[in-house]
Amino acid sequence: MAAARLTLSVLVLMLAAASLTEGLRGAGPKRCCFRFNENKVPSNNVVGYTKTSQRCSNPAILLQTVTGRKLCVRPSAAWVKELINAKFVQGESKTSELPLVFLHVN
Q1: Which of 29, 32, 38 lies closest to 106, judged by CA?
Q2: In what residue span(s) does the Chemokine interleukin-8-like domain sit (predicted)?
Q3: C-alpha distances in angstroms, 69 versus 22, 45, 81?
């Protein structure tokens, strides 16, 4: 009887520890990219961008277009770096109605 109680107690403790660690881990990333748009997107079509989570297997940037679409692009692409630098870092875009940069922080 004592062995059964000990086994049950150990099982309950293991389940509690497993559920606690799952809760601390949190939900997974909201959006990851697995296919990428390789075509250059015109600067006037982009209103914002988001970096994907570091937990995604592929580093990516989501460009938000004026039509509301989100396009996955490679952050290493030269045209992506140029677009973000010219439009958001140097402040080419002065639109006040739309947020310019959407950053996803883990």
Answers
A1: 29
A2: 29-87
A3: 33, 10, 19
